[in-house]
Every structure is written in C-alpha cells, then in structure tokens.
Amino acid sequence: MTFQSILTRHPLEGFISALRQLRGEYEDKRQRKAVYERTWRELSAMSNRDMADIGIHSSDIPRIAAEAAAMHKI
C-alpha cells in the first residue's frame, strides 16, 4: 500500500464495507425466509387428498419448504 492510497482511502471504508456485506446477508436471509413461508403456506392450504395426489404428506411440508428456501437464488 502506497502513501498516496493511504491518504485517499476513507477512514471508515472497512466498516462501511462490512455493513454492506451484513446488509446483503440479511436481505438474502429475509428472502429465503419469505420463500420458506410462502411454500409452507401454499402446501398447508392443500387438502390431504391433494397432497396425496402429488405424493407428499403433511409431515413433509417443513422439509419441502426448507428445500425450496435453500434453492432460492437472488
């Protein structure tokens, strides 16, 4: 690192960068939670017969919702 780059860097640059990273991680987590909740809500609204038609049981809902959230891409 040269003297010039030291003088031109903002004193809080590292802190601001860390905050941006935390904000991105928070947003990703928020979106994954939204996918989980939407999937869980939609599957829970189905009747047992409808779920049986597509090969799932009500006990599978949390696992399926978690898988949907894990596959979510921003």
SSE string, helix = H, strand = E?
A: HHHH
Mean pLDDT: 88
Approximately what portion of the residues adopt beta-strand conformation? Answer: under 5%
Using DSSP, what is the number of strands? Answer: 0
Radius of gyration: 22 Å
Q: Main β-sheet: number of strands, strand sense, barrel status?
A: none
Helix count, per DSSP?
A: 4
> What is the helix content?
over 70%
How does this structure look, described?
The chain has helices spanning 3-8, 13-44, 48-53, 61-71. With 74 residues, it is mainly α. It has a domain at 26-74. The protein is rod-shaped, with a radius of gyration of 22 Å. It starts with a helix and ends with a helix.
Short description:
It is built from 4 helices and no strands. With 74 residues, it is an all-alpha fold. The longest helix has 32 residues, at 13-44.
Question: What labels describe this entry?
Answer:
mainly alpha; 74 residues; 4 helices
How do the helices and strands line up, and which of them pair or pack?
Blueprint (H helix, E strand, L loop, with lengths): L2 H6 L4 H32 L3 H6 L7 H11 L3
Helix pairs in contact: 2-4
